[in-house]
What does this fold into?
Amino acid sequence: MAIYDTYKTRTAQALPKLTPAEIKRIHRFGNLVCFREGEQLVEAGRSSFGIYVLLKGRVRVSRYDGLGNSSVITEHDVGEFIGEISQLAGAPPLVNVHALGDVEVLALSTEELRALLISDAELGERIVRAFILRRVEQLDNKDGGVVLVAPPGHARLHALQGWLSSNGLPHRVLDPQCDEQARALVEHYQPGPQDWPLAVCPDGGVKKNPTTVDLGRCLGTLPPLSPDVVWDVIVVGAGPAGLAAAVYAASEGLSVLALETRAYGGQAAASARIENYLGFPTGISGGALAGRAFVQSQKFGVKLAIPAPAGRLLCDTYPLQVEMCGSLTLLQARSVVLSCGARYRRPSLANLKLFEGRGVYYWASPLEAGMCSSEEVILVGGGNSAGQAAVYLSSHAAKVHILVRKNSLASTMSSYLIERIAATPNIELHVESEIVALEGNEEDGLRRVRVRDNRSRLEKDHDICRVFLFIGADPNTGWLGDCGVQVDDKGFILTGSDVPGEHSHERAHLETSVPGVFAIGDVRARSTKRVAAAVGEGAAVVSQIHGFLAHRS
It folds into this structure.
């Protein structure tokens, strides 16, 4: 009964019915629009709108996967509204909506929707909660989004699935050997060896061996960016620090563009559970925390582009300029916040690149955990991220072997994680040990791992097909050379009083050697490598940006 009641509550929150008084409060934000019977209000992958509030008639919401399949998701009646997270982000919708009879709606653009959410907190909470629950349902049911078609185990498939999952984007995977429609698609497009996987976008378009950039464009996570726009702030990196800076800056009226290479939340989003973050006594997964921050950023109007790696920072002109990686596009900003974090370290192992995504992983999401059922896995690393991943994987894998080069975890991991690892029967710690060889082939992926005990110098082969590497990261600052941002001997960005030499102006605590360029989070020298500290710096930098902009005006 309790499960049924929870289901009813969740459904009611996902499909709330607004009262006449609430609709009246929305009227000043939108315009009346009429549709005739059978007319399409929303076209998946193509329409642009914020929210439709139904005033008269009834509409049908359906999924269309580009393979000719169409099925009903739900129907909306008077007082209900059409939309989900895609509309809050200004991205094209993932569903189709048709009028059942004559229909009248109150139509709000994305900008008008954001104005409503900010000005009316009570209504805003109900609408945003409904949007989130609708996206959760799409993820659970794999409704809308991209359809990936490829033979199981294809090398590129895991990378694309990982990118889609990390960004909270629903998708399905079809095997052409088992699915008749997937087989027909393959017969029509005749993909060669370099054309896998095929990706079917929500609008029905098909892409061969797409990059994440291709998927970002078809799903709207990578919107067109104009070189003519001058942003108040460009945030490079959308981890906890970058998202916090973006949210606080946008909430205070600054125009904000955030550029992220892979997925919002950064490396923190891969944490299975963060248990020492203030305000979450039972802990929260990194993905859930990142997802909430992402929605919050969209509510305040942050323009977030993914995948959008920055290639160069140009500081010899003002406004400052950020050049996109692989493009000549120059984006302009009055200030730049560097929250570009770090890059995963890769051990010096032969064939490592061959097995990345095919047995070697740098994070442990539900996608990877699902592959480990009843298997033994190896996890390398002794930090908190490694500990969280090991505990998480232990609930899926038959056994988790942790390898560390030191003689204990005491100097690198929080005590609560050490205690939990010790209390987990299917986790085994191997101190002063390391991987020395990976074996397998391109077709089957990783098949064997050779481990050396550095105390005895003995080496042993293990028939293990999954290895998780959590051996730290190096600061992602190599792209800053053209700007002259000063870094320390390890590559971390110097800020405030740590910048050597005479200061031509009063340098703020988080400001780099280049006026108007700030650094926060893990990429900053002497920063505390914790999510809470990164969020704090993201909040603190905004007042310093205001001070810089006031000085420039």
Notes: The chain has four domains: 2-141, 146-219, 230-343+518-552, 352-469. The chain is about 30% helix and 25% strand. Residues 531-552 form the longest helix (22 residues). The CA atoms of residues 140 and 195 lie 28 Å apart.
